[in-house]
Structures are given as structure tokens and as C-alpha cells.
Amino acid sequence: MKSQRPVNLDLRTIKLPITAYTSILHRISGVILFVGVAILLLALDKSLSSAEGFDEVRAYIGSPLAKLVIWGLLSALLYHLVAGVRHLVMDTGHGETLEGGKLGSKIVLALSVVLIVLAGVWIW
């Protein structure tokens, strides 16, 4: 069966709705959190192993690169939290329409940006 539908595989030209971007970012933030928890657990294990290990982890955390990584993990956590709350609100039956979904996505993005900036100010 031959399909007459056009096929566009160029991802740079596909225009996705804002709800798709928030959904994709929610999944990406979940993956970042999964990897980040492993890194933080390794640091916790090292810090609890000995006094020297604690001092070593403490020195790492003071570096600008570590602060950037921690801010990135905290940003992923905050975005994932806000987007997750949006999904919980949608489970109650609110914001399931097209307009409601778009508004919810805009609120998630705006609130996440504010929280991420505040987290950056707190860390730095």
C-alpha cells in the first residue's frame, strides 16, 4: 500500500506545539535526575567512608564546576517537580483541553525559570 502522505524527517523544520516541548523536557529532566542521583550517591559514599573522603568531597563541592553540576541537577529536579505537579493537576481533570494544555505548559516553563534562577542565586 503506497501512502501519499508527505514525510518530513528534517527535525529542524518540524514545528512542535509548546506542550510537546514541555513533555520532552520532562523526560530529559527525569533522565538527568536518574544519572545525577548516582553521582550524588557516590559522593555521599565517599564522604561517609572516612574523614579524608569527607574533606575531598567538600573540596570538590567548592569548585565552580561542581557548583555548575549541582545547579544543573537542581534545575532538572525543579523542572521535573513543576511538570509533575502539572500532570497531577491534569489527572484531576483540569487543563485537559488544548487551550488548558498550552496554558499549563506556559505556566510550567515560567515557574521553572523563576525557580531555577532562584536556585542559581542560592548556590552561587
TrEMBL record:
Superkingdom assignment: Bacteria
Textual note on the cofactor: The heme is bound between the two transmembrane subunits.
One MF annotation (Gene Ontology) recorded for this entry: electron transfer activity
Binding site for heme: 80
Function as written in the Swiss-Prot or TrEMBL entry: Membrane-anchoring subunit of succinate dehydrogenase (SDH).
Subunit structure: Part of an enzyme complex containing four subunits: a flavoprotein, an iron-sulfur protein, plus two membrane-anchoring proteins, SdhC and SdhD. The complex can form homotrimers.
Name this polypeptide is given: Succinate dehydrogenase cytochrome b556 subunit
Name of the gene encoding the protein in the UniProt record: sdhC
